[in-house]
Amino acid sequence: MLDAIPRFFNGIGKRKPTPVPTEEKPAPVWSRRAITAHFSGYFGEPGETIDTGGKIIIHIISPTSERNYFTLFTSGMSIVPMNQPYGLSGYEYAELMLHLPADWVFNPKDLKSYWPVEWLKTLAYLPEDENAWLFYGHTIPNGDDAEPFAPNTRLGCFILGATNLLSCDEERDAFSMLDMGGDKVVYCFTLLPIYKSEMEYKLRNSAQDLFALFKLHGVSDVIDINRGNLV
Which residue from 67, 105, 164, 202 could staple onto 2, CB 3.0 to 4.6 Å apart? Predict the structure, then answer.
């Protein structure tokens, strides 16, 4: 279920994560091991990986009795800083994840089963390919008309959110910001597929309004290709 939006996201552009006080700040370091260990600590140990043909790897965490869903996450998106808007500082690194039902079948030759993987890959490379900035509340449609991702769903847009599969605000906050040292913080976002009308609702109002609507109707982070349209 979607709970309260993590507190730190309400102050984006106003404050930065509090750094650990040190005499001398270490140089920022990127480590795939640190990224995978961070996700593993909250969602379980990844098994298989998907080669994207570049620096980004997609990791797959299989369902367990405790967490009965797949978790897919990226490592490598945060190697290079994104082109954040002028005036902002400290919000240029991110990694992405999404969740799929435990009975999901991964078939690279079948768009109906593989569109979440393809879109995770596409969005992870978007900042580098398009000199773009992806952050909390941003929406990315499938084309100008937010066409359905595949023949088996009417969903046609993604929104970046904070995870709501962790049990408390403190745990969600800790997961969502990974301190890599040297003032480098990697933000970890959940990808949620939405309908075109829901995207338009968000644009008319705000991401927080849309997430509040999701909470009211019990929309889960685990993708449901047949969920009802809320707008």
Answer: 164
The total number of structural domains in the chain stands at 1
More confident residue, 3 or 164: 164
Residue 30: which pLDDT band, with cuts at 50, 70 and 90? Answer: low
Cβ-contact 194, 157 below 8 angstroms: yes
68 occurs within a structural domain: yes
Domain that holds residue 142: 7-14+27-217
Distance CA(147)–CA(153), nearest Å, equals 10
- Phi first, then psi: give them for residue 163, nearest 5 degrees: -60, 145
Helix axes 196-204, 207-217, angle to 10 degrees: 130
Write the pLDDT tens digit of every residue in 88-106. 888 999 999 999 999 999 9
Residue 80 counted as domain residue: yes
Q: Do the domain assignments include residue 22?
A: no
As a whole-number percent, the residues of the chain with pLDDT over 90 amount to 70
* HSE of 189, CA atoms in CB hemisphere, 13 A: 27
Residue pair 162/189 in contact (Cβ under 8 Å)? The answer is yes
Q: What angle do CA 205, 116, 161 make, to 5 degrees?
A: 35
Question: Is there a contact between 81 and 32 (Cβ–Cβ < 8 Å)?
Answer: no
Q: Which residues contact 46 (CB under 8 A, 6 or more apart)?
A: 36, 39, 40, 59, 60, 61, 73
Beta strands in the chain (DSSP E): 49-51, 57-61, 69-75, 94-101, 139-141, 157-161, 177-181, 184-194
